[in-house]
Amino acid sequence: MTAQYNRVLLKLSGEMLSGGQGFGIEPQAIGHFADEVKAVKALGVEVAIVIGGGNIFRGLAGASKGMDRGHADYMGMLATVINALALQDALERRGVFTRVMSAIPMDKVAEPYIKRRAERHLEKDRVVIFGAGTGNPYFSTDTGAALRAAEIHADIILKGTKVDGVYDKDPMKYDDAVKYEHLTYKDAIARELKVMDVTAISMCMENSLPIIVFDFNEKGNVARVVCGESIGTRVDAG
Questions:
Q1: Contact between residue 40 and residue 96 where contact means Cβ atoms under 8 Å apart
Q2: Is the pTM of this model over 0.70?
Q3: Average of pLDDT values for 227-233?
Q4: Which ranges of 9-131 does DSSP label H, i.e. alpha helix?
């Protein structure tokens, strides 16, 4: 297998780490994540990662129950750092060197995010895990992923999900849901397909940064995507 990309950013929702238990961090789920990343590293690819925090706390959910939105979002950002540290542990137990970088200063557990330092870590063959989103409320981890990918000049964003691509409607609910093999940024926004939020897709469009949405639960899929196999849905300029 030969990698088609030199530097990728892998985006995963926090819910994926909860596995079958529905909350928190399931050892089997985070072990699968670490194994997938290790396999991609073995291909010589530079890997950066952004994980959501929805398995612990989601800012929008807190705001919908009456919490101040900014306060709730900061809590969600802290949850992403917990997930980043858990993934760092899983990766390093597999011999993969990592650095966690946080957009919110917390020097006891993570490095502050500095663009050039992040790029240097990647060049030194370390996996860089970005925590705390953009460091600002009102921005999703999707937007954080798009921002970091643009800053580090990633070749592509790989968004791992529970389904094998983007559909015209929820394939978990509708048997007649139709999968898209390819979408333009404008199509994804116009059709409200929730590939990523509008801010994130717009940022990818402005920076000509393609996105591939694929089934993360299928073993070996990350490496297959990196090697150019036609898996999932690709979103680009068209």
A1: no
A2: yes
A3: 95
A4: 27-41, 59-64, 69-92, 115-123
Residue 149, domain member (yes or no): yes
Q: With bands split at pLDDT 50, 70 and 90, how would you rate the model's confidence at 60?
A: confident
Domain of residue 123 covers 7-236
With DSSP H G I counted as helix, E B as strand and the rest as coil, what are the percentages for the chain, rounded to 5? Answer: 40, 20, 40
Number of domains forming the structure of the chain: 1
Evaluated on CA atoms 115, 60, 158, 235, the torsion sign reads: negative
Which residues on adjacent β-strands are paired with residue 158?
10, 212
* Model confidence at 101: pLDDT above 90: yes
Radius of gyration, alpha carbons of the chain: 17
Strand bridging mode 211-215 / 233-236: antiparallel
Read off the pLDDT of each residue in 13-20 and give the average, rounded to a whole number: 91
Question: What CATH number has the domain bearing residue 165?
Answer: 3.40.1160.10
Q: Taking a C-beta distance cutoff of 8 angstroms, is the pair 234, 181 a contact?
A: yes
Residue 1 lies in a domain: no
Q: In this structure, what token pair is assigned to residue 192?
A: 């409200």
